[in-house]
Amino acid sequence: MFCVECGREDKIFRDGTCLNCYLKSHTFTKGPKIIELSNCPHCDSFKFKNTWISEHFGDILKKAIKINFQISKELDKVDINSECTEKKEGMICKVYISGFIENEEIIEEHEILVRFDRTVCDVCSKRFGGYHEAIVQIRADNRKLKNKELIDIRATAESLIEDLQAEGNRALFITDIAEEHGGLDFYISEKAAGLAIAKKIQEKYGGEIKQSSKNIGMKDSKQMYRMTYLIRIPSYEKGFFLKIDNSFFQIISFHGNKVKLIDLSKWNETTFDVKSIQKSSILGGEELIKEMILISQTNDEVQVMDQKNYKINIVKKPKQVSFDSKTVKTVKLNDRLFLIPVV
Ligand SMILES: [Zn+2]
Ligand SMILES: [Zn+2]
């Protein structure tokens, strides 16, 4: 057959023309010159079909093109790519829409302007309105939180929230953080995340979590409650030395209501209740640790020298170990010298 356009003898594709002429005389994509998108100036999310989403601009633009452009159904394997430059009036974007007709790749280029309508999103307006479903209160038993605890607890809570947000929960946020009565208060938009923070702090510092709830009225004909999670961390910390009865221990870690300790005379681990620890006497923390020069060792003993006064001490090995370092860590508790376990 002869093509009615070019007159060449070829396979007729459609409307009496060959594929080549058909492709030349048709366009397969059509769209507006300007696209408007609502964009939140605070969190940079975009409104899309009445829903706010946090995605990269490139992905948002792809979605907007799919909706605003007419892309011929004749095109197979449609792909959209773009190159954008930021200008005062918005983003100037070169949009490439590609696809296949009968194994022939078609790429059509459009230049569009994406204008941004700056609107505060649903989540940010809730956040600025002080919305919170949970309050997490961190306090220390009989003392104020130390500066390094304040910094660490804050960072722990913030990074936990960031992780949960990164998993796709954009409705989650910290409304406020306040230092109160020597402790910290976190105001969190969701209860589950509030409890997760309390548990994470408990894991690190020990202590008990107390929950209470407060009726805050009706919403969509449902009773609403605000949760408070109070966690009182113990007055002692990881690394502290304790005397219980006539034995000496170092705190290794906290597990909810339990404390893992190491018995310094035998180097074996034991677990105690937080409550029973509260009655013990605290001798101090890591400031008591002294590094001494290892002079010699036998199976049962080590000879160590104090680096300050060159005094030599003989210490019984808590168990059969052989030290291969030049120094060992020691602690003097009630005039008894102990070797600190090597971790
Ligand atoms: Zn032709
Ligand atoms: Zn926002």
Radius of gyration: 34 Å
Spans of at least 5 consecutive residues whose pLDDT stays below 50 are none
The helicity comes to 10-25%
Biggest beta sheet summary: 6 strands, mixed
Account of the 3D structure:
By secondary structure, the chain is an alpha+beta fold. The protein has four domains: 1-28, no CATH class; 31-118, no CATH class; 135-233, no CATH class; 259-339, OB fold (Dihydrolipoamide Acetyltransferase, E2P) (Beta Barrel), CATH 2.40.50. 19% of the residues lie in helices and 48% in strands. The protein is built from six helices and 25 strands. The protein has helices at 19-25, 57-68, 122-128, 147-166, 191-205, 274-278, and strands at 12-14, 17-18, 29-30, 34-39, 46-48, 51-53, 70-71, 76-87, 90-101, 104-118, 134-140, 174-180, 183-188, 208-219, 222-233, 241-244, 247-255, 258-263, 268-273, 281-284, 289-297, 301-306, 312-316, 327-333, 336-339. A six-stranded mixed beta sheet has the order 6-5-4-10-9-8, covered by helices on one side. A hairpin with a 2-residue loop joins strand 12 (174-180) and strand 13. The termini are far apart.
